[in-house]
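lol ok so funny story. i was supposed to be doing the assay writeup but got distracted and ended up predicting the structure for this chain instead. priorities right. anyway since i did it might as well share w the group, maybe its usefull for someone
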Amino acid sequence: MEKVRKHGLIGDLWPHIRLMQLTGHWLLEYHDNNESVMVLIRKLYCSLTTFLVLLQFIFIFVFLCFNTYDADQMAAGTITVLFFLHSITKFLFFAFRSKYFYRTFSAWNQMNSHPLFAESNARYRAVALTRMRKLLMIIGIGTILSVFAWTVIIFLDEPVRDIPDPNDVNSTIKEEVPQLMMYSWYPWDAKTGMRYMLSFGYQLYWLFITLSHANLLDVTFCCFVIFACEQLKHIKEILKPLMELSAALDTAVPNSGELFRASSTTSNLPLLGSESEKAGSDFDVRGIYSNQRDFSAFRDGGGGGVMSVSGGVGPNGLTKKQELLVRSAIKYWVERHKHVVKYVSSINDAYGAALLIHMLITTVTLTLLAYQATKINNVDVYAATVIGYLFYTLAQVFVYCIHGNELIEESSSVMEAAYSCHWYDGSEEAKTFVQIVCQQCQKSLTISGAKFFTVSLDLFASVLGAVVTYFMVLVQLK
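and the output, tada:
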């Protein structure tokens, strides 16, 4: 545990990572105990989970192939297979491409701060962490409720159904419906006795695990994007004060030390670092930002006037160490934006193919659900099942799209912030760096599905429009 927490942001995500490990994801890193015996146990647990997950999916697929009697039954079975195929593919995708996820986690942890902007960075990191935990809680509760609803609804259905008589095509026979969550073929009789109880427990476990696999990987994607968005907000917030600081580098102003004095006394934020850390440094860096985006100064140990360092003050009112600190802050701003760009690129590498597969499966599933919706005549178990499938499938797409759209908006607004930050008053070095970032911002940061589509609210609107179109066409044909 202590080793994991030393990873910084990975330590902040410890509950989320721990849940992925507990559900059998092939996330073999970030453990507090890496002894060979524990590593072997974890691999065996992941292997067992993989076997049980794939075995039950094969049973469902076999039932679809050999136990469907008409178009409606075939459509219902296909929807079930496609619905869980989404979870299976994500689980296997993570197992085979885990190195890309580790690379993204590594890029996440390399988000170092700068002394002048440590408070702003910590604040947006805390905001991101809060949003991540809320999202994990919401989706976790949604997963549990989905499993509960899926289990309860089977006991509200009819215990028997009519099926075609294999001996007489003009008549039907009654068949007992097993009270299981999914229609599935088993090499044993799963309708009565202890074998029914074991089959029921197996399906309950499988349902919870498969939904958890997909949802936890979705949450991981959202956490990645949320952190990128909050870092872009941090970059935008520090830009205007940074230009004011940099203006002193090229200006010989006798009293330019006032630039570093606090412009607001309303901030009650704590000082950066401990007193012992301050005593050991050549200068004292205070909390540069308040919630009103004001900044304070480099002060001496007594908090009096402008810091005085051996070597004297230059014509611009800054000491050499202050000048170096300001110049490093300008470079930090550019490097931080560059790092966010690389970080988003690593998210695309990790999730691009999975998003493409997700959308392909979702398109076919929604088409079949539109067909099933045309069969709804009453408010019954069948209607609730179809609506449940439809809502859950659309919710999965929406979670991706809302966060992908936020990334586009935040990355686009960086250029607007650069134009409105009085960059023309900054130093020549700052002007050059602002131009570099503006060139990078001409194209918004996006998450794509293997470059076939962009994840945004426009994509969700297209999916929703397609569902309505399919439904209306099928109603007309009916």
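The longest strand covers residues 168-176. The two ends are 60 Å apart (CA to CA).
back to the writeup now i swear
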